[in-house]
Design goal:
Elements: E1 4-6, E2 15-18, E3 21-24, E4 37-45, H1 52-66, E5 72-78, E6 88-94, H2 97-105, H3 107-120, E7 121-129
Antiparallel strand pairs: 1-5, 2-3, 4-6, 4-7, 5-6
Helix pairs in contact: 1-3
Length: 133
């Protein structure tokens, strides 16, 4: 079962892979710097949370979206609180607004949205954040 899956876009030699989970070796959360944007989306899928199709969607999302050059610190998480109606969460960081625009216009992002997101996600909440100074 895919209960928590995260990846940080750091050079390959600084990534550690264990049981299909990629983590930054330092284990230190990345703090937003001035001008960075943290793009987040909470969502539900049309499949049961334990379904193989759910695992595939989450793994494919991680693989496809984290491979884009402007995406940093990609994370996938599963909700455990009963206070929230959404089951899953994608989070990523962009250096600036230009990088975020480039992500939205990137052919692989557009393809993922069209072929997977629009057909497998039932509802979602998107939010973008910058650091408070």
């Amino acid at each position: 079962m895919f209960s928590l899956f995260s990846a940080c876009n750091v050079p390959k030699q600084e990534k550690e892979v264990s049981e299909n989970v990629v983590v930054e070796r330092s284990g230190i959360p990345v703090k937003l710097e001035k001008g960075n944007i943290r793009h987040t989306v909470m969502f539900n899928l049309k499949y049961d949370v334990d379904a193989p199709e759910t695992d595939k969607f989450l793994q494919d999302g991680q693989r496809i979206l984290s491979a884009l050059p402007m995406v940093k610190n990609f994370e996938v998480s599963r909700q455990v609180s009963s206070k929230n109606e959404y089951n899953f969460y994608f989070s990523m960081v962009f250096d600036n607004q230009e990088a975020y625009k480039a992500y939205n216009a990137h052919p692989e992002h557009i393809k993922f949205v069209k072929e997977r997101w629009e057909t497998e996600v039932t509802n979602f909440l998107e939010a973008d954040f910058v650091a408070v100074e």
